[in-house]
């Protein structure tokens, strides 16, 4: 009987420490992802579109899906931002509202949220879902659907 009790306690300890480790990992990942988004907000609000794009995977396989359809590639996405927001008056002040961050699997998360632009030319609001992947130790957006 003592052996069964010992095994049960050992299993309980192992299960709880795995859960704590997974929770700690999720919280760390979430914090790092939120930092990327905060850095993007700051860059946008300084009308630094190249700085804003540092949160994206600098690769031709990056996918952005918005009102103009599907855009593939980092450079093409940057060019679309430059066309759509040619001046500070059009870009305005960005505020993200994050509604959910969920792990997909491995080093992949989705983030669901809202964006709010306060602008001289009229405010703009919308929603997004972005996919983050840890690449070379950094969290990068590999796919973005914003509308």
Describe this structure in words.
It is a single chain. Helix content is about 45%, strand content about 35%. The chain contains four helices and six strands; from the N terminus they run ααββααββββ. The chain has a six-stranded mixed β-sheet, covered by helices on one side. A hairpin with a 5-residue loop joins strand 4 and strand 5 (about 125-135). The model is unreliable at about 5-15 (pLDDT under 50).
Structure in a nutshell:
With 147 residues, the protein is an alpha+beta fold. It has helices spanning 2-45, 49-52, 74-84, 88-91, and strands at 63-66, 69-72, 93-105, 108-118, 124-135, 138-146. 13% of the residues are buried.
């Amino acid at each position: 009987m003592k052996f069964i009790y010992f095994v049960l306690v050992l299993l309980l300890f192992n299960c709880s420490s795995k859960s704590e480790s997974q929770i700690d990992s999720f919280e760390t990942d979430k914090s790092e992802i939120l930092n990327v988004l905060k850095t993007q907000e700051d860059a946008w609000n300084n009308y630094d579109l190249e700085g804003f794009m540092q949160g994206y995977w600098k690769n031709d396989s990056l996918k952005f899906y918005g009102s103009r359809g599907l855009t593939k590639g980092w450079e093409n996405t940057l060019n679309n931002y430059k066309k759509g927001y040619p001046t500070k008056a059009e870009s305005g002040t960005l505020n993200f509202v994050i509604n959910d961050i969920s792990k997909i699997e491995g080093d992949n998360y989705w983030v669901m949220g809202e964006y709010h632009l306060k602008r001289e030319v009229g405010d703009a609001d919308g929603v997004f879902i972005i996919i983050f992947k840890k690449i070379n130790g950094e969290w990068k957006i590999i796919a973005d659907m914003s509308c």
